[in-house]
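DM from R.C. (forwarded with permission)

"hey, sorry to bug you on a friday — could you get me a structure for this? deadline for the figure draft is monday and I only need the backbone to look sensible"
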Amino acid sequence: MRIWFDTEFIEDGKTIDLMSIGAIREDGKQYYAECLECDLSRASPWVKKNVLPHLNGFVVPRARVAADLIKFMGNKPEIWAYYADYDWVALCQLYGTMMDLPKDWPKFCRDVKQLCDSLSNPKLPEQTSQEHNALMDAVWTKQAWEFLQR
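My reply, with the result:
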């Protein structure tokens, strides 16, 4: 099963603190949650302006997010994101270290931006949904991947 995901997070050059995560599967099923433990008071001015207004208030403990994602992604998922590096670290940290990821999950994330670059960097469709909402960004990432498959 292919999964496209996105996160919103607070980072300070040393830590990545997951605020929210959104994902969509190839069958269209969606997942979204915000992390209870995230300290929103640490948000930068940019995050306060561009991300916080788009949180929807479905706040749950990180442990529940981790458990929900195991059910949502299933066994042997093919995981994609856009400019995936920090998103992947934030997802992995839900389980501890990358070595603690669920059995049968890959230890890497595929990157739609790298795929785009390998195809001579065509102009991707514009995102018409709300940017900086993790679920809407995940949906757009799936759309961008589909565009690149043509």
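R.C.: lifesaver. The domain at 2-148 is CATH 3.30.420.10 (Nucleotidyltransferase; domain 5).
me: no worries. Residues 3 and 79 are 5 Å apart (CA to CA).
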